[in-house]
Design a protein that fits this description.
alpha/beta; Peroxisomal Thiolase, Chain A, domain 1; 5-stranded mixed β-sheet; 4-stranded mixed β-sheet; 13 strands; globular; binds acetyl coenzyme *A
């Protein structure tokens, strides 16, 4: 059975740099508070009108496809991870297929928040190993800046997130010294609401619960999914219990990294690079200390780009590769934890 290798990688971040001080215009916060709690100095925000999650994905995918030495028309399947889709439906995969003038191939959207890229990579890996497809495009892109609460009320979340995209092309390889060794996927829905955006959604909001279906008028029937009152009460923004997320993240990150190493009879000292989802620099540093990894074994770039959810791992992986930190044959671990909760790891030989 062949393994999957990353044949090409690309990233894209918008040109517009938004520093911590730029946020002071909207909310009561400080550069010091943000840097101390999260490590973030600045993030990028997409152009208001010209850029979407899909267009950023196209930029990253174009580079990945070119570096793989193929054309968009040779891609057999698309897996697109995002929590900031251009439309509620259809997903971004088909929009990217259209934008890149690809053949009428399958396009799958993955909604797994911060672990979305590893879940997407794992799905693509199975298709490659089974021999079904030869060139799979895995894209992760997020335009968070359109869906955050920029008032002081939303500051604990808004300061963390940024926009950007990353992409890889997966291809089969018979080379036993290369490719994805294993992927490990987990979830625990018991804490789903701790880090979540509830609306628009089909869960019953409190005002819906108070009435029988027959008692709704026409306007109310049309407002169950998204209503003026939801917007008036800021229920259209993400919610997070930061300390609770921190507690579980620092437990699951090391566990899923060790799971990947143990499954392959490897140790932390074998790792050339560990790339954690860029959730928060404090979380990454905690994980690094727990696993006794050296500074040059962990790659972080949250300082420049903030937390770009699904896109953070392929952006960091691409940057690390472009800086020569990963060479052919190096052992790389990707690890993520996020909303759901879901967490995941992938171990690969570059
Ligand atoms: N600027 C200034 N003050 C702030 C800000 C801000 N941006 N945000 C919150 N505060 C204030 C709060 O209002 C609160 O004030 P109070 O004590 O007067 O009520 C105080 O700071 C502490 O608030 P907490 O929410 O408890 O803040 P905490 O110290 O826990 O830090 C943070 C928040 C950084 C999010 C932290 O909880 C954390 O690191 N959590 C981990 C989760 C995480 O990083 N998630 C990232 C996204 S999810 C993911 O990718 C997995």
């Amino acid at each position: 059975m062949p393994r999957s290798k990353i044949a090409g990688i690309g990233m894209y971040v918008p040109k517009n740099v938004f520093t911590n001080n730029d946020l002071l215009k909207f909310m009561d916060t400080t550069d010091e508070w943000i840097q101390e709690r999260t490590g973030i100095k600045e993030r990028r925000y997409a152009d208001r009108t010209e850029e979407t999650t899909t267009t950023m994905g196209v930029e990253a995918a174009t580079i990945a496809i070119e570096r793989a030495g193929i054309t968009p028309q040779e891609i057999d399947f698309i897996v697109f991870a995002t929590i900031c889709p251009d439309y509620y439906f259809p997903g971004c995969g088909v929009l990217l297929q259209r934008a890149m003038k690809m053949k009428e191939i399958g396009a799958l959207d993955v909604r797994n928040q911060c672990s979305g890229f590893i879940y997407a990579l794992s799905v693509a890996d199975q298709f490659i190993k089974s021999g079904m497809y030869k060139n799979i495009l895995v894209v992760a892109s997020e335009k968070h800046s359109f869906g955050l609460d920029f008032s002081t009320r939303g500051r604990n979340i808004t300061v963390i997130f940024g926009d950007g995209a990353g992409a890889v092309v997966l291809q089969p390889t018979e080379d036993v010294n290369r490719g994805i060794l294993s992927t490990h996927l987990h979830s625990d829905g018991n804490n789903a609401e701790i880090l979540a955006m509830y609306n628009p959604g089909t869960h019953a909001n409190h005002w819906v619960k108070e009435k029988k279906l027959a008692d709704f008028d026409e306007a109310e029937m049309g407002e169950m999914f998204m209503s003026h009152s939801m917007i008036d009460n800021a229920q259209n923004f993400p919610n997070m219990d930061g300390p609770a997320v921190f507690k579980v993240a620092v437990e699951k990150f090391p566990a899923v990294i060790m799971e990947a190493l143990t499954a392959n009879n490897l140790q932390t000292t074998d790792l050339k690079l560990m790339i954690p989802h860029q959730a928060n620099l404090r979380i990454s540093q905690f994980v690094q200390r727990k696993l006794k990894l050296n500074d040059d074994q962990v790659y972080n770039n949250i300082q420049k780009f903030g937390n770009t959810t699904a896109a953070s791992i392929p952006i960091a992986l691409c940057e690390a590769w472009e800086q020569g930190k990963i060479k052919e044959g190096d052992l790389v671990c990707l690890a993520a934890f996020g909303s759901g909760f879901t967490w995941a790891s992938a171990l690969l030989k570059w």
